Amino acid sequence: MAWDFDYARAWRDLYRPAYKCLSWDLRQLFRRVAVECSELHQRQDLWMHWPDEDSHYVHGFTEPLRANFESFDDEYLAWASQVIFGLGHYAVGRDWQLAQWVALVEKPEHLSEGFKKLVPSDELERVILNGPPSADAAEKGLNPATQEVYDAAQKEIRNYGLGGAHWKFSKYADEVLTVRLGLPLTEPHGARLHFWIDDGWLTARYSTKDYMGNYRLALATKTRLGRVRPLLEGKKPDAFEEAVEEIREQTMKSLSGNRLDAFELKPKYYTHEAGTSYSDEELEYKFRTSFNGTFIVRGIRNVNFKPHPFTIGPKHMENSGMYLDPNSAPCAVPGCKLKYEDHLSDKVMFLECARDVTEKEAKEVLGSQKIIDAMEHFEIDGFAFVESRKGYKFVKGEEGEDTDA
Ligand SMILES: [Zn+2]
């Protein structure tokens, strides 16, 4: 089974379109960071140095950079921090930094005359929409001369020193928000619960002597911090996790489109490799919205092993290539001569009632043709029910009774 995070798709389908939807004022601010802060570095406390108060005169802007950031409200600034960080981050790791490229393209007065001649604007837009050119440029319908564009762009980027514009923008935005929300700029020593802002997301860090976890809660606004803080403060680990889950569910209900995708980034942009089997985690994600608020999927696992779980041993490691191949050696349980496919088990989906559910409803939801077909397709054998964390249960519904309660 193979499930890989698809950077290119996250960039193409989420961050690039989201960037295009940001207001002109905000995109202007990003371009400003690219140009005005190109020589600036991170401070020792990991925030960014701000430009001198008068640097904006040089670049023709009418107010200091910080005031420019302050002119956006919490919600919009937090979202911009996330989008612009993603725009650069998911393009990074290639040999071309697209965020900087976008910054250049949209502020063409900073491009040299020679470069402008080299880049016809329609080709440029095509490059932007298709992602950075690569060896298969021709297959993607790009002009082979794109290589020239590409090389020239890299030179331009070096000339203007625009490297890192995306994360610098995000740092400035997060710092402005951190101060606005009244949060400390550095983590207080020994704090069990610490709120901080991570590329626009309000995040709770919970740490004990032997445990540390970060939980993304919502876009960072003063109102949301005020709402979630009392729900999380002073909680023991179990109650804390439950409260976090509740907050995250609320956030997901309140978000849609690009914002929901960005919040759920990891599962959404995993890609299944054709011809491989589905991992339990992947199936859990696929089914998570299949039960219309009646049941919550709590996991997918194999049970009822016959005669026992197939066991991987050193021989499999020796004999396998890049992916572990269970058929490369017999089962490692002593005395077992059975092959991989002779070890049987049932794949079970564990469900929890999301509210009180009548038996009639349960039958309708779980017995729908859509669910039956999907179960068959993904080779899931059945359902098992775990106790609801909120005390919901199956109830007997009278014939014809309204069960909306
Ligand atoms: Zn065996």
Task: Sum up the structure in keywords.
alpha/beta, GMP Synthetase, Chain A, domain 3, binds zinc ion
Characterise the protein shown here.
- The protein is an alpha/beta fold and 405 residues long.
- The chain folds into 3 domains: 3-168, no CATH class; 182-263, no CATH class; 279-307 and 343-395, GMP Synthetase, Chain A, domain 3.
- Helix content is 45%, strand content 15%.
- Strands 2-3-4 form a 3-stranded antiparallel β-sheet. Strands 6-7-9 form a 3-stranded mixed β-sheet, with helices on one face.
- A hairpin with a 2-residue loop joins strand 2 and strand 3.
- Helix 5 packs antiparallel against helix 10 (165-180).
- The longest helix has 18 residues, at 237-254.
- The protein is globular.
Brief digest:
With 405 residues, this protein is α/β, with parallel strands linked by helices. It contains 18 helices and 10 strands.
List low-pLDDT spans: 92-100
Helical run tally: 18
What share of residues are in beta strands? 5-15%
Rg for CA atoms = 26 Å
CA-CA gap between termini: 42 Å
Bin the helical content: 40-55%
Structural class: alpha/beta
* Mean of all residue-level pLDDT scores: 81
Shape: globular
- The largest beta-sheet arranges its strands as 2-3-4
